[in-house]
Amino acid sequence: MPTASIPRCSADCTAEEVASLLRDHGAVIVERLVGDDICDRLAAELEPWIDVTPTGADAFSGHNTRRTGGLLTKAPTSIDMVAHPLVLDVVDQVLWPKKTAFQLHLTQSIAIGPDSPAQMLHRDHWCFDFFPFPRDVDVEVSTIWALTDFTEENGATRVVPDSHRTSDDVRYAPDDSLPAAMPRGSVVLYLGSTVHGGGANRTDRTRIAINVDYVLGWLRQEENQYLTYSLDEVRAMPERVQRLLGYEPGAYALGYVDGGRSPMTLLTGEAPGSHQSFVPG
Questions:
Q1: pTM of the model
Q2: What is the pLDDT of residue 276?
Q3: What gap in Å lies between CA 60 and CA 65, rounded to an integer?
Q4: What architecture is domain 8-247?
């Protein structure tokens, strides 16, 4: 059985405090990390995109759930969540093993419609072809931001605290999970090894969340960031976001272009020959 509750912090908690809870329990809620003004602006940007997004093709995706990706250009206010300093600091402390950069794994809004059943419980790191990562290796940190209030009734993300250190073949029942109930503007962070799933929406209103995940720089991203955004779109983004998208080497000699250049030179216009080589030998 899980712990009595999902650990939670206030927005003024330090990254060290949040990271410690995340490592210890596999999940943590930070309440009201962004304000209503950001939520309102982001909701307005997303509305026309959600309206034209098809519902899921299977039960796991949700037959009454709409998942809209590529948020950085569709909903520019999402950058306040994607590049939130506290979240990035926590991710930097928790992901392991890493010697260089981590990167953006995916961005999407998740709109769970009325009368939707709960999603199957799962671990996000199963996307890596179900590779059995050792339990002391944390390759992914996922975040779900509440754009509407999250309640057990409207489909708040369900989490099994302390499941992150159990083997992938351990299966959990829905009763083992707890709802990440939280006010809008809050975020629940959980590890890629933590068992979780979208909750059942038993109300007549849509529950909307922003899902942003981060992964070690030497792993493939779930959302193909290089095809999601054009080079011109990326050039207009802040440098921290450019690097998160994967435009810097993920490790030594991993992800270079043109015989050894950092991909950042494609964005800055730096001339070949004035760069550090990432090619061994």
A1: 0.95
A2: 54
A3: 10
A4: Sandwich (2.60)
